[in-house]
Write a structure and sequence with these properties.
The chain is built from seven helices and six strands, in the order αβαβαββαβαβαα. The chain is α/β, with parallel strands linked by helices and 233 residues long. It folds into two domains: 38 residues; 192 residues, Aminopeptidase, CATH 3.40.630.
Length: 233
């Protein structure tokens, strides 16, 4: 008899707890619908990651290892893609292998390549664009990551500021402020776009550093943190 009463009390308590939970859920749904939404807001954002160069256009070349910018850009683009997708963003790469985007029949392959990049961006209609590049300069002491944005693109400027701040805080020698850059890939879109020169292949120390897996992961994570800060705005 005592066991039956205890069981009845336990069932009653469970019903009360369930009732309270339902009340709390309903109230929370009314007051904070964005928190309880099944569709995560981040899943609604689409990012285009553009690995610069490709195919016959190798870009800058390392002074020691002779690594080509084309190949390193793709490694960084794929790493950044993985980080962003793990968080839930939709990511589209302009190129996913070593081949160029130009038409084999095009007389002006550079023009053909840039048009293809624009076509991809326009078809995706992304919330933001990140173009990945490596730098080079005759003065071999130059080093450090630099973020660029189109002068007329306010969203790009804000995105560039957030990414540059994140890089400067954690990546050694990264510049402190972004710069205006006159680049086709930035000028061809109205979405928030940046071009990141990740470092200088003409600097011996930085050339080696840019190829280290741990450094690549850290660098891309800081770019990702800048993207998050931009979306929080």
């Amino acid at each position: 008899m005592k066991r039956i009463r205890l069981k009845a009390v336990a069932i009653k308590k469970k019903r009360i707890v369930s009732f309270i939970f339902i009340i709390v859920f309903v109230v929370a749904s009314c007051l904070f619908p964005h928190i309880l939404s099944v569709d995560s807001p981040k899943a609604r954002y689409t990012i285009v990651i553009d690995a610069g160069h490709g195919g016959i256009d190798g870009g800058a070349v390392g002074t020691q290892t002779k690594i080509e910018e084309r190949d390193l850009n793709l490694i960084y683009a794929k790493t950044l893609k993985r980080v962003c997708e793990e968080f839930g963003f939709k990511v589209v790469l302009t190129r996913s292998d070593e081949n160029g985007l130009y038409s084999p029949l095009a007389k002006n392959k550079k023009k053909s390549e840039m048009q293809k990049r624009q076509d991809i961006i326009e078809s995706v209609k992304p919330d933001l664009l990140v173009s990945i590049h490596m730098n080079s300069f005759p003065k071999q002491s130059c080093r450090g990551a630099q973020v660029f944005y189109a002068e007329s693109n306010e969203g790009g400027m804000l995105l560039a500021q957030k990414i540059q701040e994140s890089l400067h805080a954690k990546i050694e020698f990264a510049k402190s402020t972004p710069k205006v850059g006159d680049y086709y890939v930035l000028n061809c879109t109205r979405c928030a776009g940046v071009l990141i020169e990740c470092g200088f292949l003409s600097n011996k120390e930085e050339e080696m550093l840019l190829q280290q897996k741990e450094y690549i992961n850290d660098f891309c994570y800081q770019v990702f943190c800048g993207i998050l800060q931009f979306f929080k705005m």
